[in-house]
Specification:
There is one protein chain. This protein is of the alpha+beta class. The chain has one domain: Ribosomal Protein L30, Chain: A (2-Layer Sandwich), CATH 3.30.1390.10. Helix content is 43%, strand content 21%. It has a three-stranded antiparallel β-sheet with strand order 2-1-3. It is globular, with a radius of gyration of 16 Å. The protein starts with 18 loop residues before the first strand and ends with a strand.
């Protein structure tokens, strides 16, 4: 987790970025094509990138598919859950 500091009002420090990862987990019921299409549609992956992430998930059990602030990742996480995928924000 990376925190950047600014020179805020009255000496307080604010976190400008709190980077996290959207992690996709392996399951036994979604097809490769469905997962690839979801990564393209939800995470804006290129098809090749989505395919590589899907293979990593299949072989390693999980893969970080996107990074960013929690507020950026939360809607994508929710959409992946709505589509029946198993994901976490770490």
């Amino acid at each position: 987790m990376v925190k950047e500091k600014t020179n805020p009002v009255e000496g307080e420090e604010f976190s400008l970025s709190d980077k996290r990862e959207l992690v996709l987990h392996n399951d036994d019921f979604n097809t490769f094509d469905f997962v690839i299409n979801t990564l393209v549609e939800v995470c804006n992956h290129e098809p090749e990138q989505a395919e590589q992430c899907t293979m990593i998930v299949h072989h390693n059990g999980k893969c970080a598919v996107l990074s960013g602030d929690f507020t950026e990742l939360k809607p994508k996480y929710s959409e992946m859950l709505n589509r029946g995928l198993t994901a976490t924000i770490e």
